Amino acid sequence: MNPTETPAPPAPPVVSVLRAEHVTKTFGGLVAVNDISFDIPQHSIVSLIGPNGAGKTTLFNMLTGLYRPTEGRILLGERDITRARPDVITKHGVARTFQNIRLFGAMTAVENVMVGHHARMRAGLFGSIFRPPWVRREERETREHARELLAYVGLREPVFDRLAAQLPYGDQRRVEIARALASQPRLLLLDEPTAGMNPHESQALTEFMQTLRDELKLTILLIEHDMKVVMGVSERVTVLDYGKKIAEGEPAVVRADPGVIEAYLGRQE
Amino acid sequence: MSELRAQLQEWRSAVDNWLPPWWRRALVALLIVVGIVLPLLFSSASGFMNATIIAVAYAVMSLGLNIVVGFAGLLDLGYVAFYALGAYSLGWFGSGFFFKAHIHVLVSPVASTLPGVHLNFILILIGAGLICAAAGVVIGLPTLRLRGDYIAIVTLAFGEIIGVVAVNGQSVHVGDGMTLTAGNLGISAVDQPYFPGIGSFNLLNLRPWYWLIFAILLVVLFVNLRLRDSRLGRAWVALREDEVAAVSMGIPLVKTKLLAYAIGAAFGGMSGAFFGTYYTEVNAGQFQFGFSIFILAMVIIGGLGSIWGAVVGGLALGYINNYLIPDVLNGIPAKLGFNFQLTEVEFGIFGFLLVIMMVLRPQGLIPERRRRLELTAEIAPADAQLAEAPGTPGDGT
After folding, report:
1. d(Cα B288, Cα B159) in Å, to the nearest integer?
2. Looking at CA atoms only, how far is residue B3 from chain A in angstroms?
3. pLDDT tens, B7-65?
4. What ipTM is given for this predicted complex?
5. CATH superfamily of A14-93+185-269
6. CA-to-CA distance for B16 and B10, rounded, in angstroms?
7. Which of A66, A114, A118, A143 should one mutate to test binding to chain B, selecting the residue with the greatest count of B CBs within 10 A?
8. Which helix (H) or strand (E) holds B216?
9. DSSP element (H, E) containing B184
């Protein structure tokens, strides 16, 4: 063995958190996602971009179990989650936010985040009725943890016990991220998190995503339209158009790709 | 109007601040004591006692339906099915109906000499709860993929099916000349509850009946309160608010919904078993569609999703239906020179009450905390609009 060969960095494959293999989704005759393969390396931030209707959210919905792929498979680590239920996928460590915020409007911010933690709780029917000490502890810890998370995403006390529907838009986005974090994910999927934000807020969120990756050791998959955010934060960019992957690689490379410019940036102007 | 409301709000919080923090607990304890002592203030076989017993049993059903409709947001229009199944559980396991069988468990000395299946009332109560929970799961399964109005239609049909089976069960032979139900003839001579040391209940003294159903109410109330503030209760509300988000947050859809159906049904069945023995017969004619609506009206009048609302709604409609209209106000039209009795127009009265409620207090008599927050707290309109982004592509589980 030649000792100079062993430390070759590209050879030991980067551990991929999630891998999609030839995933296709059709709705009737419409091919929303067409034979897409990609993988997400651990502790990375990967962006998924593409014009409206390119199939980004459909892909998200397949990764989280809301849709079942027509073809192909999805692996979470070594585990095949192609046909798993959404709640099972959440248990295995995938959490998401939604393009159009989907909080539980009639629940308070704290309760919303507590629901996010449900996947990690054990109390069932009888535990809930008889409330033995371990259930009380679980409830209390979940509540405290929820408050900590709300503080972590930058909200302050009076907001915690207000109904989610009554919070301002920016705060709702934060609550949604806190709710996703509460399920203690390994992989966080953010669907257009900066939609409706001004450049200053987008910048703050960009930094926050990096904090999340570094502090919580998360891997983040991001759908984003704001090129500034995408170019600033992602290690890798995957571009979809009409359900197909048309480019993939480092932000700078993708930005220079003529196909991408034509399909995406050109169309935007 | 809004000034008045603000003024009331102010008074309310002033009173809240003035009362010691434990006043709610104290109030509950006081209500329980009043509930226990109440029958001693009335003659033991009065019409009022009778109405009270029925009203409390309604409150139990109302609490059960509130779990399904109020907590989990699944509009169930077939709740009468569980009343029927609970009552038949009593008919089957607490009478001489299956006359070829000779099974006796902890029943009165008289009943233990009779043919048929005779189980202690508590066992029947538990059995009725389990049977109805199973039936709740069966009816829940086909509705899992449905939402809103479609759930209502399926459950309505299920209620009707049980009603028709009850009527025609007379022709369903289960062997040895025994049938499934007695149809419109009714299963009569059902056992009265019997407890060793206390003896058999009888209809000359209604107090023990009252204490029995009151105890059932307390148990059901306790379970409701515990479930509301628990992981399961939050999961129900989350599903009600946004199913897609809830399952994405790790809430198992099938299990959580079926638990709501099962628990709600179990309470309906327990109340049904009580009615079976209290009315001394189980007759297919009792299980009409209108009864489902009646229970639903209790939940809505009380305040959808509100536990204390369900109790108050059940008691209120129980008293109006069984005391106020037939005993107190029935003669009024005649006195005014009209040629009808109030009992003949009772459905009209209930309809009128519902309309009045919807106009004056749509949130119910005792609204749920969330609804109250929604209605009282000021919403920043611009923000609320922004949050309602158009189109929900993720909307397809």
Report:
1. 8
2. 22
3. 877 887 888 788 888 888 899 999 999 999 999 999 888 899 999 999 999 999 999 99
4. 0.90
5. P-loop containing nucleotide triphosphate hydrolases (3.40.50.300)
6. 10
7. A118
8. helix B207-228
9. none
